[in-house]
Amino acid sequence: MSTNRNIRFRGFWIINTYDKFSQGLDISINCVIFYKKMSFQLCRQRRHDELGRNQAWNPELVKVHAWECELAFQKFLDCWEKNMVIRISDGEHTDYETLMEREWLETNGRGGYASSTVLNCHSRKYHGLMVANLDSPGGRFVLLSKFEDSVQLQDGEFFLSIHKYPMVYYPHNEHSLSQFTLDLYPRFTYRIRNIVIEKELMLVHGEDTLLVRYSVREAPYPVCLRVKPLIAYRDIHDLAHENAFLRQQTHDVPNGFSILPYDGMPDLYMQTNKKSLFCPEPGWHRRFEYLKERKRGFSYQEDLFMPGTFECRMSSGSEIIFRVSLHADRRRIATLWKKEAERRKELHTTIQVNDKNTEDFKTRLHISAQDFVIRNRRKKLSIIAGYHWFYEWGRDALISLPGLTFYTKRIKEGIEILKNIAELRKGGLIPNNISEESEQRAYNSVDASLWYFWCIQELLKHTGDYELIMNDFWPVLADISAHYFFGTPGHIRVLENGLLSVGNASTQLTWMDAKVYGIPVTPRYGCPVEINALWFNALCFIQKLARKFGRELPFDADSFTDKIKRSFESCFWIPGKHYLADTWMPDEGIMDESIRPNQLLALSLPFCVITDHEKACGIMRTVSEELLTPYGLRTLSPADSRYRGKYSGSPEERDAAYHQGTVWPWLLGHYGEALLKTENNSETAREKLRAIIANMERHMFDAGLGHISEIFSGDPPYEPCGCIAQAWSTAEIIRLQTLLEH
Description:
By secondary structure, this protein is α+β, with helices and mostly antiparallel strands. The protein folds into 4 domains: 6-82, no CATH class; 96-332, Beta-galactosidase, Chain A, domain 5 (Distorted Sandwich), CATH 2.70.98; 355-476, no CATH class; 627-742, no CATH class. Helices cover 34% and strands 26% of the residues. The strands form 13 sheets. A 9-stranded antiparallel sheet has the order 3-11-12-13-14-21-18-17-16, with helices on one face. Strands 4, 5, 6, 7, 8, 15, 19 and 20 form an 8-stranded antiparallel sheet that branches. Strand 12 (186-192) and strand 13 (195-203) form a beta hairpin. Helix 2 (35-51) crosses helix 3, helix 10 runs antiparallel to helix 11 and helix 11 (466-486) crosses helix 12 (529-549). It is elongated.
């Protein structure tokens, strides 16, 4: 069926070569949606061409070719989605504002990254070409912010890069980007008249090395490529400004330069794989503007330093690779590019082999999952919570871990991370977060340790290896449960009725932890519903393990689980309203009747504390009607007077909305599990969840390309907000999709 012949009908091109599709070839189609309406005419025209204008044609053959073209069309669409192609042509997606909303992300497995918009015009202070997670000074730093790259033609200089300055984009004429492709790595195709230039970039896995390749695909005459590196050398949360302390002197290295801008910071090396000319021209470029930061209520103007300019003569078919690193490197640059590209191809192949039924969306999810598993500065395997500004968070890591590792068949990595997290516990508590600057740990989370039990349950589900659990994890689980049972100073106490009471009016110890001016936005001290669902699940699980291993616990788990179950229903179930209270405050003896998604955990965990089917149906009906959206669950019912339907404004305004209506995709995993349990895995429930999965698939083209956002606004059209790539969002969609497959 495959043919190398291209088909054209009334200006529409269909390239019917399967291997070309799989390579992500630039396929020029003015409007593919018209194709289905014209497939019969197109195939008739094709058959007419094949037989000759004066020969008769067989309608039955046309039907066969229509089927063939339909397959080719579907293959094209599949590869189009898989390669994450965004096309900019014939006036479509040419405005800067639309393209500035789409962001790409590259990671290096060390917590470092490269990221920008598809225009490579930064909209955030977190954007940069080399953002490194440094050992000293500790933290992530934007070292190389961007390139100002341009092409000198016979009649002038034409820019590939875009900058935003006060009141203007530069250059202010139309951009030259014709296509962006995300496959093994980001690829940008620029068209300047009859000249086509391709720019590709990669971060080398496991090290702070950036590779950028420029290729001239079409050019009737030689051109001069100019590249001006613009450096920031500052913490990711800060901004750089012109100053007299920066050392402007550069040092010659083969085909490039090195520079040490500040004491205590690493050198920056920039070299090319072919002969190029570097001209030192030190100077500051002032007042770059980052529109996302202005929108978020932060400082948004920055000055960047330019050490000089690279110039490279290039002709059609030629290419040059730039390497940016933090140390002298004698390795061949072209070989380094080839090895990293091969590593990525092998990784993609492994994902396909591990799951032969993997669809394009699931493949992309599994690739996204790789970005969150890092080797941190302690050289330990860990999980980064989100890009760009989150670092290591205990709760996020444990909620994310099963989806990122077990459900992507990376069992060994998941086990290693669980062991590393266990080493950080203190008094039975797993740290809420770890400072990326000083590595200090904050033990202000009561649920992180309870999520650890759920992770071990998920591990057991995937391996069935009780011996592993006994040898490596039983001591951890026993230690945590004992500390919780007997209480921890200032955090946790077990009530007479068996429920856990946590914190006080000034603390925020659950995942809904936002504060404004030091005051909790969602005060949840006392007995939060999900904390006690997790507590019940943990006790039931360790009780089961103790029996299987013939071990004794330092407390009577048997009587306590029965007591907790009775107390839970009496303290949280709201008679006549058919849902669970969000918090029970024992000192006041009152319920917080806010409709929130936390009650889902009473149904979704392996040991359900709510087993009454009628009550379970009531909970799911209330949650579905009040909280469910196309992209996740609201954190508060819109009927509540405190509801905030839009996540925007100043930091204080956004924090006030963070858990007061804002939508969180990570909750979909537990919503799906609770729904399937409650509705006995019915086809109706599965169809409902498949529709949600389809929404998330479309979202991967909207904000952080190839990733799932941290949050969405609670009101339509549900704008993606927060981090462009969030670990637990990705992880729980992976888990939900797997639940639907089985």
